[in-house]
Specification:
Layout: H1 2-39, H2 51-87
């Protein structure tokens, strides 16, 4: 029974580590995509844009910069949620018995 409990706890810890790594990888990919967008904008000739288009472009760029500043805290918060979900695990094992009934004429 203790062996099964230890195995299940190891499995929970492995899942916790995997989910933590996955969420970090996903959010890191988001960071890279935002950095790429800010570093190489798809526009080159702002003078052909209207005033409203330029101001919208600047607002979008500022929103992306703000989002990038929030990402490290978001990674930590998401990982903390995952750790919290796995920390409150209480393992419940129930012993099971199986009885085989065999007819006398088949025995």
């Amino acid at each position: 029974m203790e062996e099964r409990k230890a195995g299940t706890e190891r499995l929970f810890r492995a899942h916790e580590a995997k989910e933590t790594a996955v969420i970090q990888a996903i959010i890191t990919d988001l960071t890279k995509a935002i950095e790429k967008e800010l570093a190489e904008p798809g526009y080159r000739q702002l003078e052909f844009f209207t005033y409203y288009e330029r101001s919208q472009l600047m607002r979008v760029a500022q929103a992306l910069r703000t989002r990038m500043e929030q990402i490290p805290a978001e990674i930590e918060a998401e990982q903390e949620v995952i750790r919290g979900r796995f920390s409150d695990s209480s393992l419940r094992l129930f012993p099971v018995a199986v009885a085989f009934l065999v007819l006398e004429r088949l025995a």
